[in-house]
């Protein structure tokens, strides 16, 4: 199995003491960025507290059953009946779009994603089945049971602009970080060097139930069982490492910040094949590509 890069616990970007007094079940990272954990995955709220209706953005849409928790947190953080200006997706895997259709309908909002994720968000293509042979723990072994069928928000779906801007998120830009998914993106704010990573890399061993429960601060490559192009994944981590971020919030695990995080990220980028890539697996042997811009296809 792949390895982890430990990070000093002092690199945590969230403050448990401050979070203890909050009533919205979110964890603050900056004044206008917070996250909420849903079993396996994080969703991110971008906007200042009290921003009001259409004054904030939701990044990713959790797992099935998380609709009430997300809406309750949003109202507590931004105000009664405060809807987002948009939902922005890092990618369309099941644990990032679990309640997307319900939330998009209830809030009447556009959904932004990379063009290469469109087939998985308009109902026209399913992701490849996960690969349990990568090892790593119980979640890895159970991964073939994870849903791969697409959601359908075609009527609300918008493609992220080619200029890198994120229309509802002033000051942010999207960066194409494929490998884990064809149209995977990460979100970057240069002003304070904040990075919303998605699953381009993560800060817990997502294949292990124990690691997911404990969430010791450490850096890993993308979740192995659903990563289908390891060359692209390596390039994506190197792109993000070169940004030298001050803080990162990933799709899985705790947010991290500071020099200790950057050293670990630089190590992950430099030693990606040793640390992140599994020794075996069908996508290690036959990666899936989407060079023609269409949905990934299983090899024949």
UniProtKB/TrEMBL annotation:
Any Pfam family the entry gives: Lactamase_B
Q: Which InterPro entries match?
A: Metallo-B-lactamas, NDM-1-like, RibonucZ/Hydroxyglut_hydro
Every Metallo-beta-lactamase domain range? 40-252
Classify the source by domain of life. Bacteria
Q: Which SUPFAM superfamilies match?
A: Metallo-hydrolase/oxidoreductase
Protein name, per record: MBL fold metallo-hydrolase
Upper lineage: Bacteria, Pseudomonadati, Pseudomonadota, Alphaproteobacteria, Hyphomicrobiales
């Amino acid at each position: 199995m792949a390895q982890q890069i430990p990070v000093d616990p002092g690199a945590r970007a969230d403050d448990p003491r401050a979070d203890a007094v909050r009533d919205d079940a979110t964890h603050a990272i900056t004044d206008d960025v917070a996250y909420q954990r849903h079993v396996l995955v994080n969703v991110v709220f971008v906007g200042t507290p009290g921003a009001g209706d259409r004054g904030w953005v939701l990044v990713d849409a959790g797992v099935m059953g998380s609709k009430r928790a997300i809406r309750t947190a949003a109202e507590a953080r931004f105000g009664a009946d405060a809807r987002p200006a948009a939902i922005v997706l890092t990618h369309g895997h099941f644990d990032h779009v679990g309640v997307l259709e319900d939330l998009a309908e209830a809030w009447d909002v556009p959904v932004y994603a990379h063009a290469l994720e469109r087939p998985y968000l308009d109902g026209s293509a399913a992701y490849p089945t996960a690969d349990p042979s990568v090892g790593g723990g119980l979640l890895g072994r159970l991964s073939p049971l994870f849903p791969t069928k697409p959601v359908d928000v075609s009527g609300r779906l918008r493609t992220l602009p080619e200029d890198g801007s994120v229309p509802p998120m002033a000051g942010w830009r999207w960066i194409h970080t494929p490998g884990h998914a064809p149209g995977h993106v990460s979100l970057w704010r240069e002003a304070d060097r904040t990075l919303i990573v998605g699953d381009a890399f993560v800060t817990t061993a997502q294949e292990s139930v124990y690691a997911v429960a404990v969430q010791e601060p450490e850096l890993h490559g993308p979740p192995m069982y659903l990563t289908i192009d390891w060359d692209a994944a390596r390039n994506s981590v190197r792109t993000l490492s070169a940004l030298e971020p001050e803080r990162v919030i990933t799709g899985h695990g705790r947010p991290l910040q500071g020099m200790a995080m950057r050293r670990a990220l630089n190590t992950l980028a430099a030693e990606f094949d040793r640390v992140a890539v599994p020794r075996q697996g069908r996508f290690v042997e036959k990666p899936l590509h989407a060079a023609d811009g269409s949905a990934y296809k299983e090899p024949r």
